[in-house]
Write a structure and sequence with these properties.
Keywords: Membrane, Transmembrane, Transmembrane helix. It comes from Myxococcus llanfairpwllgwyngyllgogerychwyrndrobwllllantysiliogogogochensis. InterPro entries: ND/Mrp_TM, NU5C-like, Proton_antipo_N. By secondary structure, the protein is mainly α. It has 19 helices and 2 strands. The chain folds into 2 domains: 1-144; 173-352 and 382-416, no CATH class. It has helices at 8-32, 38-64, 93-116, 123-142, 146-164, 171-202, 216-229, 238-241, 247-256, 261-268, 270-274, 277-298, 304-324, 328-347, 352-362, 373-377, 380-387, 392-425, 440-444; strands spanning 70-80, 83-91. The chain has a two-stranded antiparallel sheet. A hairpin with a 2-residue loop joins strand 1 (70-80) and strand 2. The longest helix is centred in the C-terminal third of the chain and has 34 residues, at 392-425. The protein starts with 7 loop residues before the first helix and ends in a 7-residue tail after the last helix.
C-alpha cells in the first residue's frame, strides 16, 4: 500500500492508546485477581511500548510525505449545547519530534527497568504506572488542542506523584510525592484558567486558532502552569525531593520528559507569546533566576542525584529564557539534547561513586583535580546560602504553602457554616409514627373478621 494511503487517523490514535489499553487491562487484572508475574507484566507493557513506537514512526513518515501539517479528528467525545469536546491530534515538527523522543525513551527505560527492578516487590506496580505515564505524555505532545493537552497534563502529574511515592513503606517518599502533587495542583490552576479563558475568547482551544488571540492574561496563566510542571523558581523545591522514587522513573520523569513538559507547552503556545511582551519578559526573568539559583546550589551538593536535579533546573531555566527571547528552534534542540543527556546520567547515577573510586585507584600517583576552585572565589555568606539552598523551601512553606492551606481551611469552615444555616432554615419533615402493635389482650381474643 502506498504511504500516503495509510490510515493516519488510526496510526496517530494508536500511539497513546496502545500503552493506555495496556494500563487498563493490567490494572483490571491486578484489581480483580492478583499481580501478574514479572515476565508477563514486562511483555505486556514493552509490547505496548513497541507498538506505540512503531505507530509513531509510521505517523511521522506519513507527515513527512504531506505538504503541510496533519490534523486528525477522531470525533466529539461529548457535547453540551453549542459546545463540544473534540478529540483532535495535531502532527507538525514540534509534536513529531516530541512523539518520537517520548516513545523511544519510554521504551528504553522500560527495558532497563526489567533488570534494574528484578525481584522488587513493586515490579508490577512500576510497569503499570510506566504505561500510564507513557499514554499521558504521548497524549500531551500529540493533542491537537489545549483541552487534549490538559487531559495528558493531569494524567502525567498523577503518574509522577505516584512514582515519587513508590517506596511507600518510608515516610520521605510519601511526603515528597504529596509535595510534588500539591505544587502541580496549585500551578495547574493557571492551565485550567487559561483553558476557560481561551474558550471564552475564541470558542475553541485548537492550536491552529491561536495566532489571532491577543491576551496577556492567557499567556501568563500558561506560564504559571509551565513553571509548576518544570519546577521553576520559586517552585523548585519539589524536584530534588522527587529523586526519592526509583532511579528509572527519576531518569524518565525528571531528567528526560515530564520536567520538559513546561517548555513544550510554551513552544506550543508561541503564537500567544508573540503577542504578549509581558509574558515573554516574565519567562526570561524566571528562567535566568532559576538558572542562577540552581547553578549556585548545584556546586555544593554532596549526592549525585541532587546535583543532577539542580543541573536539570539550570538547563530548563535556560530553555525558558530561550523561549522568552523567541529562539524557538534553539529551545527545541536544547530540549531534545538535554533530555537524552540527563536520562543517561541519571541511569548511571548509582554507578557514579564506583566509577570515581576506580578512577582514583587507577590514578593513585596523580593528584586529583580540585573541583572547589570556584568556591574559593565565592564569599563565605554566599557559600552558606548555597548550602542552605537559599532557604527557598522555608520561604515557600511560609509564604505559599501555609497561606494556601489556611485559605482552604477557612473556605471549608465557611462552607460548613453555610450548610448549617441552610439546614436550619429548611422545613423539617414530620416524622411518621409507626403503627402501634396490637395489645396482648386483643391478640388473645381475635374477632371473627380478624380470624
Amino acid at each position: 500500500m502506498p504511504l500516503p494511503e495509510l490510515p493516519v487517523d488510526w496510526l496517530a490514535a494508536a500511539v497513546p492508546l496502545s500503552p493506555l489499553l495496556a494500563f487498563f487491562i493490567l490494572g483490571a487484572v491486578m484489581l480483580l485477581h492478583r499481580a501478574p508475574s514479572e515476565r508477563w507484566m514486562a511483555r505486556w507493557v514493552l509490547g505496548a511500548l513497541w507498538l506505540s513506537l512503531a505507530c509513531a514512526v509510521a505517523t511521522v513518515l506519513h507527515w513527512r510525505s504531506q505538504p503541510g501539517d496533519v490534523q486528525v479528528s477522531l470525533g466529539p467525545w461529548f457535547s453540551s449545547g453549542e459546545s463540544s469536546f473534540e478529540v483532535t491530534l495535531h502532527i507538525d515538527r514540534l509534536s513529531a519530534t516530541m512523539m518520537l523522543l517520548t516513545s523511544t525513551l519510554t521504551l528504553l527505560i522500560g527495558r532497563f527497568s526489567v533488570s534494574y527492578l528484578h525481584r522488587e516487590p513493586g515490579f508490577a506496580r512500576f510497569f503499570l504506572l510506566l504505561a500510564m505515564f507513557s499514554s499521558g505524555m504521548l497524549l500531551l505532545v500529540e493533542g491537537g488542542s489545549l483541552d487534549m493537552l490538559f487531559v495528558g497534563w493531569e494524567w502525567v502529574g498523577l503518574a509522577s506523584a505516584l512514582l515519587i511515592g513508590f517506596f511507600h513503606e518510608r515516610a520521605a517518599p510519601l511526603s515528597a510525592g504529596l509535595r510534588a502533587f500539591g505544587t502541580y495542583r496549585l500551578c495547574d490552576v493557571g492551565l485550567l484558567a487559561g483553558l476557560v479563558w481561551l474558550h471564552h475568547l475564541a470558542g475553541t482551544t485548537e492550536w491552529t486558532h491561536l495566532s489571532a488571540i491577543p491576551s496577556t492574561t492567557l499567556s501568563l496563566c500558561l506560564v504559571l502552569a509551565a513553571m509548576g510542571k518544570s519546577a521553576q523558581f520559586p517552585f523548585s523545591g519539589w524536584l530534588p525531593r522527587a529523586m526519592e522514587g526509583p532511579t528509572p522513573s527519576s531518569a524518565l520523569f525528571y531528567g528526560a520528559l515530564s520536567v520538559h513538559a513546561g517548555p513544550y507547552l510554551l513552544l506550543r503556545a508561541a503564537p500567544l507569546l508573540e503577542q504578549a511582551p509581558l509574558a515573554r519578559g516574565a519567562l526570561v526573568l524566571v528562567g535566568l533566576l532559576t538558572a542562577l539559583h540552581a547553578t549556585l546550589v548545584w556546586r555544593v551538593q554532596t549526592d549525585v542525584k541532587s546535583a543532577l536535579a539542580y543541573g536539570v533546573l539550570t538547563q530548563v531555566g535556560l530553555m525558558f529564557a530561550e523561549v522568552g527571547l523567541g529562539l524557538y528552534t534553539l529551545a527545541l534542540f536544547h530540549l531534545v539534547a538535554h533530555a537524552c543527556l540527563r536520562c543517561l546520567q541519571l541511569l548511571r547515577a548509582p554507578s557514579a561513586l564506583r566509577d570515581v573510586q576506580a578512577r582514583r585507584a587507577a590514578l593513585r600517583d596523580t593528584r586529583a583535580p580540585s573541583i572547589v576552585t570556584v568556591h574559593r572565589w565565592l564569599p563565605t555568606r554566599l557559600y552558606r546560602f548555597a548550602l542552605e539552598r537559599f532557604a527557598l523551601e522555608v520561604l515557600t512553606e511560609r509564604w505559599l504553602v501555609k497561606p494556601v492551606l489556611r485559605l482552604g481551611h477557612r473556605l471549608d469552615e465557611a462552607e460548613r457554616r453555610w450548610m448549617d444555616v441552610l439546614d436550619a432554615g429548611a422545613p423539617r419533615p414530620v416524622p411518621v409514627q409507626p403503627a402501634s402493635r396490637p395489645t396482648e389482650s386483643a391478640s388473645s381474643n381475635p374477632t371473627p373478621g380478624a380470624a
